[in-house]
Amino acid sequence: MDEVSRTLYIPLYGKAHVSRNGIILSDPTAETLWDRAQIRLTGKSRSRWLAYYLAMRAVVYDAWLREQIRQNPDAVVLHLGCGLDSRIRRLGHPPIQWHDIDFPDVIRERRHWFRETETYTMTGTDMRSGEWKTVIPGGQPAIVVMEGVSMYFKPEEFVCLLTDLGTYFSEVRLLMDCYSTRAARLSRMGNPIRETGVNQVWGMDDPEALAVKTGLVFVQEHDMTPECCIRQLSFAEQMIFRQLYAGRLARGLYRLYEFRSSQEPGQAVSPLADPERDRDH
């Protein structure tokens, strides 16, 4: 695998770590894959704080996708940059057409652990090439998740991909996380992905501007560290985690944005809304 592909082992470790400890996310597949991968991560890549953070991010994606599938059962799911993530298993193999897409070398590895079915396919392609359109029929509604992917695209490549998604499908709902431009600059100094050999990433600061360039509509920002997940940590861990990953500084570096191809009536609601926290405020 190249440097970008090898970054998949960082979230795989994080999910395996929390699952084994019975907190935040249940993912027995991640536990098995990590044990058998025989990959050595060092430094910040094995940080328990990063593991908590990536697992919480996965929880938010899972909840959003589950709700989108419930609301749009006739849509197709595109999991772009799927890596070795077992999201389809965590969601219980929902009765919907689902496509996991990543680089060919990643998909070759993935095929050792996952099997295609009539409703589940794996496609090995560079998402920048547009070849995915030869595999997935257009003109239908699509639910797209891009977890830990956007920062590896040059800005013009990313605009091209999102524009393609918006024009190829009849309707698009998209959830994606991204670095800010400041985070992209700071990554040269201490980002865990550098330990896999990645030396350059990109960020964005204005989701409204991205929407204008791609023809999509910015819906809302989501919280990647929901209170219901943080409360599963010990009291001391909660204090440290809030400082590292749940405060204003972290939010200025890493964001989670929802887009769609057309604005729908009504206010979007996070599937992980915390009523108890809302009462506190």
Automatic annotation (TrEMBL):
- Swiss-Prot/TrEMBL keywords: Methyltransferase, Transferase
Q: Which GO terms describe its molecular function?
A: methyltransferase activity
Source domain of life: Bacteria
Instruction: Give an example GO biological process.
Output: methylation
Keyword Transferase belongs to the record: yes
Methyltransferase keyword on record: yes
Q: Coiled-coil regions in this chain?
A: none
InterPro entries on file: Ppm1/Ppm2/Tcmp, SAM-dependent_MTases_sf, TcmP-like
Q: Which ranges does the record mark as transmembrane?
A: none
Q: Which SUPFAM superfamilies match?
A: S-adenosyl-L-methionine-dependent methyltransferases
Q: What is this protein called?
A: Tetracenomycin polyketide synthesis O-methyltransferase TcmP
Q: Native species of this protein?
A: Faecalibaculum rodentium
